[in-house]
Amino acid sequence: MHTPALLTLLTSLLAFTYAAPAETQAEGIATLEVRITNWKASGGCRSDWRNRCYEACVSEKRAHGCGSGGVSSSIDSGSCSLADRVRLRSHCKCSC
Fold it and tell me: What 3 state SS string does 38-95 have?
């Protein structure tokens, strides 16, 4: 076989190898869109979120369009004022 013909054959095989899986992958994968909603529970900066943050998120989830999905909660003082943080106050952050 001649060198130019061999190079053409190898180039064609490489091009086919890289193109073929992408086409079959695109056909077999369904698109799934995940939407995460975040919000602060009503009540503002407080010092007593520890015992009620999760419950507040669960009670507000439908108002934020979460439907029947799961809810998670966390307590964060970063968005409170400096004076509130000194007094150990924090926000309850929710997501679904």
Answer: EEECCCCCECCHHHCHHHHHHHHCHHHCCCCCCCEEEEECCCCCHHHHHCCCEEEEEE
